[in-house]
């Protein structure tokens, strides 16, 4: 690729080569970053490919060991790449990367999402999409073969996740690819039948139905009922998601303390919003029933989200951030049916021809209460994920290609997005008490995640001062289970039951990812306060934001080190 020809050093050249090789091994990753040469392909999920992935990662680490940094930029490039590849290799060797899946993240959802990132503007692109649809069945068959191989070693997720993904596949089989083919034919101005799009889509839908049946009838009976991953697996995943080591006692106690702090503030607001309310759920009803806060229909929702992001860019640009014109746009789209309940973000392509995109799962709803989404869109768009991820893409002269495209940790990324929500609170971004209640509900959700995610996977007891959780009664001191976790999210984070249930399913399927939000925010706030202490009156918030975002994604422990070396300029 052209970028490799002008690499600033052997380390940068190797980082470029590694990303290109990984795009071939994982064409979905290739599509995500904009390597269009692989858009007609899908990954091989078989055991054989898993062994080849291990060999590729091991070879990369061995090659890196022989490359000496030529300057400071090389030093950072090597450190970031080694840290990420070492934990990736550990997951690949242990089989963790293949056994840990569920509704929010599995080969099924990854394959479906890949089509949402593809260009569909001309006949050539329609053909690429047709070819990729024909790869859906082989991709699923390769996954099934890999799962068969995982059975003897007990390397399957719990039965709830197998059943959940089977249900998701059944939803997709109801015409997801057929609908997509119709949309592609229309947008590309081609004939649905003549091009073969209809036939390819029908085959992909049928492959989803067959996968659903196989998961339900063959794999689910072989899976265990055990949801808990245990401390050893949890530590491994915590380091993957956070780039930091885990102190269970400290993090659990801090998460509970944060949840109680947030809840106290929620009750202060509750007295303003619904003076007669005796429960937070009663306050939620007042807000949800307020037609002045409601949006009707997905068109109105998308318009509000687009305008909200554009207004936020205008308010922040030049004051607290310098936002490059190339990344001022952040797209908003509806998530595919069958997606998890929470909105999410996917970054721009490497060349920025595909903008960063926020995805909103409606789950069939047509009425939306805006108070819940204000902080959420600060988190997903600007100044959250979009500003962070797109800014890193612009740093090609300073950051290696691996650093920009393949080094993101959830602690760094989600930590920033949660910091962005907190920053907007500091900047009076929730002037309406209802909007602030939505912000606090989101904060409470992330604090509760620490408590229940650690509790569920490590087998911790609930705090002694937890008290009652609805119909479950007094749960103080009881070991956490899924029912307690759902109830905590409903009562303490004022989340609807369907969302709370979806969230707990998510935590159980992806150990330690849920803790990365507040753990990461904690580090972002700590490094900011450390900089304030060092520079006193010379501290400049906009310079802090510019430097920390230009550092690019990395683990939280390396991030602390790099920010401690910042000179404040």
Helix tally equals 26
Enumerate the spans where pLDDT stays under 50 for 5 or more consecutive residues: none
**N→C terminal distance:** 34 Å
Amount of beta strand: under 5%
Mean of residue pLDDT? Answer: 95
Major sheet, described briefly? 3 strands, mixed
Name the strands of the widest sheet in spatial order: 2-4-3
- What would the principal axes of the Cα set say about the shape? globular
Question: Measured on Cα atoms, how large is the radius of gyration?
Answer: 23 Å
Bin the helical content. 55-70%
Structural class call reads mainly alpha
- Assembly level: single chain
How many DSSP-defined strands? 5
Descriptive account of the structure:
By secondary structure, the chain is an all-alpha fold. Helices cover 62% and strands 3% of the residues. The chain contains 26 helices and five strands. It has helices at 2-5, 10-25, 27-33, 47-65, 72-94, 96-99, 107-116, 123-133, 136-150, 159-173, 176-188, 197-219, 231-242, 248-273, 280-289, 298-316, 374-380, 385-393, 401-406, 410-426, 433-458, 482-492, 497-509, 516-535, 541-550, 556-564, and strands at 294-296, 331-334, 344-346, 357-360, 367-369. The strands form two sheets. It has a three-stranded mixed sheet with strand order 2-4-3, with helices on one face. A two-stranded antiparallel ribbon has the order 1-5. Helix 8 runs parallel beside helix 12 and helix 11 runs antiparallel to helix 12 (197-219). The radius of gyration is 23 Å and the shape is globular.
